[in-house]
Every structure is written in structure tokens, then in C-alpha cells.
Amino acid sequence: MAWRNRPDNEWTISLLEINNSENILEVGFGPGQAIQLLSDVNASVHIAGIDHSETMLASARQLNEAAIAAGRVNLQLGSAEHLPFADSTFDKAFSINCIYFWKEPLQGLRELHRVLKPSGHVAVTVRDKKQKAYQAFRPDKLTQLFAQAGFFSVSVHHNGVRSHPLICVVAAK
Ligand SMILES: C[S@@+](CC[C@H](N)C(=O)[O-])C[C@H]1O[C@@H](n2cnc3c(N)ncnc32)[C@H](O)[C@@H]1O
């Protein structure tokens, strides 16, 4: 998963236009590759992550050991639908290849909206596939869900890679 998803991580992070010293959240970090990438690219940001799998938490902690020891990364168990953070904590938040698994995608987006600071931004990346399993995550459905969760300036981006098509929804609080 880690190797296959590297382009997804790079593209999503680039769309968020992260600035120095920002407070960033990833929901569903899996093996922790996106967090490692981001903390390597910008050592001034603080990154928090949650994932509901103990196995993934252990892998991601191992991969990001140095940044965690330096106090730049904080990873914990948690669910997208009940984020363990106070309101208005983060400048930016992202989630990659994860929203399909949320029991309540709208509740997860509402939680992302809650923990973002005013004018914070979120990016959610999914595979651009037309099969039935992805029907709830097509651009029109996602745009509607983001608006329902309270986001505005909702834009849908396509990576334009035919062999590995992705959609990323970027929105502002
Ligand atoms: C397909 S993996 C993607 C991991 C990583 N974002 C990537 O693209 O390489 C999905 C991850 O989301 C986590 N996950 C799924 N549903 C979740 C939820 N409701 N709350 C928190 N994490 C969740 C899984 O444990 C898994 O690590």
C-alpha cells in the first residue's frame, strides 16, 4: 500500500499548499508514508494523525520515530467520526484513500470541519473510478457532502494520470 500510494500522497500534499509552522492533521494515515513525506519536506510543521487500526499505528510510529521523538509528529488511535481534538485546532487537514471506509462519511467531514481553524483547508483524495463501489465518492456526490458538512469553496481536482486516476476535493472552512 505504501509504495503504490506515494503519488497520491505527493499530489494531495501539493494541493494543500502547506506553509511553514502550520498545524496539520491526517485522518487514516495507514503506514504513515504521507506523514513522513510531509515532515521531511517541511520540518517546521506540526503533524497529528489518527487511524483506527492498532497495526497501522504501530507501523506509522516506527516509520516516523525520529519526528515523533523530536515532538514534530503525534500519532494516535482514533476514528474519523469522533476526532480526538478540540475545535479549531488545525490549519490544514487531509485524508487519502480512506473516506470509503468511514461508517458515516458526512459525520467524518463534519468532524474535519470542526477541528479546522476558521479559513483552514481540507483535502480528501479518492480513486477516480466509475465502478459501483466508488459511486458514493464521485465528484458530484463528494461536492454535495462537503457542502452539507459546512465547507465552502469546494473544488474538485483530477490528477490526470490515466493509469492511476485520482480525484482530490479541496475545500475551505
Ligand atoms: C487504504 S488505507 C490508506 C492509508 C494511507 N492514507 C494511504 O493512502 O496509503 C485506509 C486507512 O484508513 C484507516 N481507516 C479506515 N476507516 C477509518 C476510520 N473510520 N477512522 C480512522 N481511520 C480509518 C485504515 O485503518 C487504514 O489505515
Topology record:
Layout: H1 6-16, E1 23-27, H2 33-41, E2 46-51, H3 54-63, H4 65-69, E3 73-77, E4 90-96, H5 105-115, E5 116-127, H6 139-148, E6 152-158, E7 166-172
Parallel strand pairs: 1-2, 1-4, 2-3, 4-5
Antiparallel strand pairs: 5-7, 6-7
Helix pairs in contact: 1-2
How does this model look, in words?
The chain is α/β, with parallel strands linked by helices and 173 residues long. The chain has one domain (6-172): 3-Layer(aba) Sandwich (Rossmann fold), CATH 3.40.50. The chain contains 6 helices and 7 strands. The chain has helices at residues 6-16, 33-41, 54-63, 65-69, 105-115, 139-148, and strands at 23-27, 46-51, 73-77, 90-96, 116-127, 152-158, 166-172. A 7-stranded mixed sheet has the order 3-2-1-4-5-7-6, sandwiched between helices. Helix 1 (6-16) packs across helix 2 (33-41). It binds S-adenosylmethionine. Residues 1, 5, 8, 27-30, 33, 50-53, 56, 79-81, 96-98, 101-102 line the site of S-adenosylmethionine.
Brief synopsis:
The chain is 32% helix and 28% strand. The protein has 173 residues and is α/β, with parallel strands linked by helices. The termini are far apart.
N-to-C span: 30 Å
Mean pLDDT: 96
Regions with little confidence, pLDDT below 50 for 5+ residues:
none
User: What would CATH call the homologous superfamily?
Assistant: Vaccinia Virus protein VP39
Number of strands: 7
Secondary-structure element order, N to C: HEHEHHEEHEHEE
Largest sheet: 7 strands, mixed
Strand arrangement, major sheet: 3-2-1-4-5-7-6
Heteromolecules bound: S-adenosylmethionine
User: What's the CATH first level?
Assistant: Alpha Beta
Tell me the CATH architecture: 3-Layer(aba) Sandwich
